[in-house]
Amino acid sequence: MSIEGLGKVNSYRTLQSLVYENMRDAILSGRLAPGQRVVAAKIAEEMGVSRMPVRESLRRLETEGLITTVPHKEAVVRRLSAKEMEDIYSVRLVLEGYGGRLAARRITAKEIAKLEELTNQAEELLAQGDYWGVQEANERFHKLFFEASGSEVLCELLRNLWSRCYAYRHLSAAMGKRERIAIEEHREIIRALVDKDGDRVERLVWEHTEKAVEPLLRRLKIEEQREEGYRAQEEGVDHPGHP
Amino acid sequence: MSIEGLGKVNSYRTLQSLVYENMRDAILSGRLAPGQRVVAAKIAEEMGVSRMPVRESLRRLETEGLITTVPHKEAVVRRLSAKEMEDIYSVRLVLEGYGGRLAARRITAKEIAKLEELTNQAEELLAQGDYWGVQEANERFHKLFFEASGSEVLCELLRNLWSRCYAYRHLSAAMGKRERIAIEEHREIIRALVDKDGDRVERLVWEHTEKAVEPLLRRLKIEEQREEGYRAQEEGVDHPGHP
DNA sequence: ATCCGAGATATTGGATCCACTTAAAACATT
DNA sequence: AATGTTTTAAGTGGATCCAATATCTCGGAT
User: Fold this and answer.
1) Pick from B47, B176, B205, B29: nearest CA to B115
2) Taking CB atoms and an 8 Å limit, are B98 and A91 in contact across chains?
3) B125 & B149 share domain
4) Is residue A146 a part of any domain in this protein?
5) Claim to verify: residue B152 and residue B65 sit in the same structural domain
6) Quick check: is B201 in a domain?
């Protein structure tokens, strides 16, 4: 009936939406890791609800691309191959660039101030060696940035693409190697926004995102190969190809 | 239990997926028109199934942006304002342009032949005055075109954007005014693909889509104003603003 | 020893039931 | 007649039950 610690449940939210958010959060945070099986009954019991709202949530997560289901078999948290990750990032690149172009035309002084604040925050956190904090601040920068585009459709798509790779964000932690430069690039983007120079914003976002994704992809490919190695060892097969 | 005329239902497809496709088709075709209310129980009865698979389908359609639901109230087929339509088209523009750029690098001779065939088909249909047929052929051209990009992510997003405005396609019927030119533009895009000139493909797609959307938007705006006029008349209010 | 098939088990898919929310309609009150 | 209130109807949200299907296990035949 009620989810512990969430107070008055039935006041205005449906159970289904709460379960959905809970599951989504679990996936993004990594509590439900990519490849892990998701059993509706288990989730339902854990949350103290029936299977019904869980099933509806599963459908939503499925159409968002966060889980995959096979009829009568199972639902698993979706795993991304390096190729898929690359595709997602390249589309994000294009869309964020376009968002930047739009933002340059309509961003307000207030929003720019907020972007500057986030950049300063990131800088401070970097000085303290809090790399995770830096990443979080940078994420908020990007989110705010594309929301300034004024296109709800664009935001929706970007949020989706974002959430699909969020569970892999630990792979893109640069641990001091790139953060310095990334923050400088953010400042440059802000300058271009102030100048209302859409072309320049777009180009800068392109370069910026491209550089950010490169190490992530490299690591993902390494992980993939390592895992394939394991599997080969276990199964006694040398190259089973992708499942 | 069984949907009439669909044969062996439980062999490999789930009822839910059949209901989903049915509903989606109804929305795209206009049988369920934008703004129309969708009552789960009614749909269930019509299709001869229980409400369960209908509810799951509704969740999917909702996250795809084809319907909107208000908790405990109702589900309605989503209506697009001119602004939303404009946003969707501008994102489509960007993505299709990018898809073209990718396609230029990897499209095969066979795919190009198929594109040419579709263009010829469109031309024939135009000569016969079958404007609807022309539109359909052109749609298939676009679909095949962006599928040649090789990016599943990109295709998924474009399919979604496509489906969101599909119910409004009658508004973009040019009835002979533009089809001639559109077909010529398709041929030019094909030429650029043959030359593997990604930049040119992207530019051509931009221009092409931009020209196609303009009349649609104009008509949508006119419809919007007319409807507002009706409402003002009915309610005796002069300008109630957007709901 | 290996392969195959018949139960047993786990889990999803679908139907039905009930409770709760919202709106609409009927009614009463001023 | 207009307005506020109660009753009624319609429809969603959630729980539970049953059926269908896939996987697993174990015993038997070759």
Assistant:
1) B205
2) yes
3) yes
4) yes
5) no
6) yes
User: Are residue B141 and residue B224 in the same domain, yes or no?
Assistant: yes
Q: Are residues B101 and B189 in the same domain?
A: yes
pLDDT tens digits for A34-76?
Answer: 999 999 999 999 999 999 999 999 999 999 999 999 999 999 9
pLDDT for B48-100, tens place per residue? Answer: 999 999 999 999 999 999 999 999 999 999 999 999 999 999 999 999 999 99
Token pair recorded at residue B35: 């703004």
B63 contacts on A by Cβ (under 8 Å): 59-60, 63-64
A52 CB inside 7 Å of strand C: yes
Q: Which CATH number does the domain housing residue B223 bear?
A: 1.20.120.530
Edge-to-edge strand order for the sheet containing B67-70? Answer: B37-38, B74-77, B67-70
In this prediction, residue B1 carries a pLDDT of 37
Kindly determine whether residue B59 and residue A56, on different chains, have CB atoms separated by under 8 Å: yes
Residue nearest to nucleotide D23 (CA to C1'): A73
Residue A23's closest CA among A76, A61, A79, A75? A61
Query: Given pLDDT bands bounded at 50, 70 and 90, which one contains residue A3?
Result: very low
CB contact under 8 A, B60 and A55: no
Q: Identify the three-state secondary structure at position A151.
A: coil
- Is residue A44 located within the same domain as residue A90? no
> Does residue B59 lie within 7 Å of nucleic acid chain D, judged by its CB?
no
| Interface contact B34, partner A, CB < 8 A | no
Domain annotation covers residue B234 = no
Which H/E stretch holds residue A150?
none
Quote the percentage of chain B above a pLDDT of 90.
77
Domain boundary among A77, A101, A128: A77
Share of chain A above pLDDT 90, in %: 76
Give the whole-angstrom CA distance, residue B158 versus residue B164. Answer: 10
CB contacts, 8 Å: A13 with chain B: 71
Domain extent at residue B159:
82-228
Residues B49 and B110 in one domain: no
**Do A143 and A60 have their domain in common?**
no
Other C-beta atoms lying within 10 Å of the C-beta of residue B233: 10
Same domain for B19 and B129? Answer: no
CB pairs under 8 A between A and B: 69
B43 CB inside 7 Å of strand D: no
Residue B76 has phi, psi (to 5 degrees) of -130, 150
How many domains is chain B built from?
A: 2
Model pLDDT for residues A186-232, shown as the tens digit of each residue = 999 999 999 999 999 999 999 999 988 888 999 999 988 887 766 65
CB of A116 closer than 8 Å to CB of A124? no
Taking CB atoms and an 8 Å cutoff, what residues of chain B touch A90? 98, 151
B65: chain A residues, CB-CB within 8 Å = 156
Q: What is the pLDDT of residue B16?
A: 96
Please state the rounded mean pLDDT for residues A115-131. Answer: 94
Could you identify the residue whose CA is nearest to the C1' atom of nucleotide C16? Answer: B50
Residue at a domain's end among A77, A105, A123: A77
In a domain, A241, yes or no: no
| Closest chain B C-alpha to A1 CA, distance in angstroms | 17
| Chain A window 72-131, residues with Cβ within 7 A of nucleic strand C | 72-75
Angle between helix axes A51-64 and A40-47 (nearest 10 degrees) is 120
